[in-house]
């Protein structure tokens, strides 16, 4: 069973606890600092006091003393009026600037967090910050808990995502954005000075030292503090985060919670630091520069001491934090979840029996255990097959008109069965509707989309983990275990319907399961690179799974997935989404251009991130994500380039998953490792997942399924699969005959017991549509979408075998082939089989050379059509039809029969009979363009232009807003040149 690992359980040694750290030397104030402070004071005095005084003395009251009359609108605008308007503007600007000054002073004196933002005051607040910084540079408060105040005012725009030296260093461990080169040099100088000061302090053994502390900073935009980044800034090595963790593990914080996992920290917490920590953000106690409230909190925390390590690890989860963590379980669930957890349980229930069977009977557990991936692949495969059928019908590619698509064989057939068993389309639908419904609800409340790092699908609930608290979620969502979790139950999720809202989180992708919960990581939102280490073959299996799910998932509108170093064949899954680049050089060139373009587009649109472009008035922009999957090991130089690109990528909707042979990839915000045993480990995140994989063999099989669906694939090979043909003469009367086209009827069998009839009839229908055989696990998954045990499945198969009985020779009518798949005897027939056989015999058999036989068989075939497939099927059953393409095959087959019979009658100039045959086919295939064109030709053959005009008007009304197809319009132009005048008059 999967378990959660913590950073403290890795077994690596941690640094010693140092209660007497060395102090950090503070730079002495120079004469220039005092001059700058004086000038800043004069500027603030002039702007805050001088401006309103001058306005009051020289201009006076600028607004009218009474209510304006209607004549005021027609008066001439004088110079005095213009001056008064300008005075009002200056007063407003002064009020805004004064508010900025007060906010900056309050933030500097409080020593807690970053200054708040005054709405619309970007340049004003930046100027206020610089002046306040210069003024306080010589004061005691400049050395308090306000980190890097001067740098924040010099190189960062308030409205942008760029920060000062310290904040920029927090964006990606060990990396600064290229546009902040000056800040980078300043940070390097500060670090060098701090190192020098620390070395001097260590050499002075006689100096008394004080304990150092760090306060966890509140989130700023999409950035949040982490122990790794704190260690990177103040210890010089992010890997020393464990020393900080060990110093503070299980110690009681002011809010009553404790640090139990290295990835889960909350703003405002106090962290005791190792003795060699350095940097301006640290606080030494005692310190007169710290506010009394902060001193009291730090002293209380210091008194907690090291005894907190004696507390037992009881599985508590820290409250808040920005990294991925496991949602708290609420006990046994009463229903199945939207995540395919039931499908996974179904597979575990039947895995033991299949494992004990012959090797040919088993299915790929990698595909069976990936319910969301399997559902996406099946939908994409079905779409590809429908598209191929229509193309074949219009162009007769390979002579496939009216024929069956190729039946997969070998590994491709096993892969298709595994997809059918593992797919959870209901889970995909609920996930998609839930996310879009959340976006619509937030937009209705004029609230922005929160940044979501991950989604957990567990025990009938959907948990969204936010990067930072975002307030109360809109109903029916509810708060989760803390302020960074929003939860939706399956029952509430079913209330959502389809909506036109843009998909809010298209970058979510399944990584694996943990304690029966499935984790979907939002690659688009990760603040930097996600690195994946491990053996090359294991990494490739993870990359293939991620690429395949992103390319076919059902909870995103559109996206671009760039593959580098693997997956050239995977582009066949979704050519519109997937693209393959030859190397890292091409990747960096492409991404540099796109990064510039997205930054410019966001700035021009006035958005701070792609999330604001997916909700509210701007949702039409549909900011699509671009996810880069780089399986090849980048060089050191290439890794640095990627890290620079990824520093701001999450804001731009770009995600990076990079494979590496080591675990120290520059710019990696989250590090993961795939083991040979199929475990996905992320120590910093506290995760140990059973990884979702797509191994090389299954990848090839899936790609083969999609390649076979292409009508132009392998032109030298077999273009079609001959249909299952039956004897359509009187001597070929079947023992069991099922009518599926129209109401479901079974002839030749007694009606089973009421409690068994529904399942037996459904199982027989599934077998009749798959004469090639059905895997028992596929049958069970179709009949029991929420799972079933193997004994129940086997019992149903035995009842079905007994119900169907045996042929006169004693052979059972329900058997099995050499692979263990269930097959029906030729004595069990459906009207679908007869329909295909009549058409085949009329066009390629005896009817090909005998006109009378052809006409009789085509007429008999149309008579069999009594309505849509399984017209009276009960609600809630036959959901497996969503994975079939029979709904596309049947109308095409009936249209082919109607066209063939129409041609048969027109050969003898029987236009009325031809029209009658075409109208019969149109009742089942009303959108078939070929039938429209032929009925126009047949009507024209009657010689009645009014009738042809009426038929054209009827087809135009059926076409809706799209209008007639181009071929139909061209045909009408030829047969009835004046048809457009009639259409215009009718409109």
UniProtKB/TrEMBL annotation:
Biased composition (Low complexity): 333-357
Short name of any one Pfam family annotated for the protein: BTAD
Signal peptide: none
CDD domains assigned to the protein according to its UniProt record, in alphabetical order: LysM
Taxonomic superkingdom: Bacteria
UniProt-listed InterPro entries: Bact_Kbp (IPR052196), BTAD (IPR005158), LysM (IPR018392), LysM_dom_sf (IPR036779), TPR-like_helical_dom_sf (IPR011990)
Bias type Polar residues, positions: 1-12
Protein name per Swiss-Prot or TrEMBL: Bacterial transcriptional activator domain-containing protein
One GO-annotated biological process of the protein: phosphorelay signal transduction system
Gene3D superfamilies (alphabetical): LysM domain
Protein's organism: Streptomyces monashensis
Biased composition (Basic and acidic residues): 299-315
SMART domains: BTAD
Keywords: Membrane, Transmembrane, Transmembrane helix, Two-component regulatory system
Transmembrane segments: 34-61
Domain Bacterial transcriptional activator stretches: 830-976
Region (Disordered): 1-23, 292-357
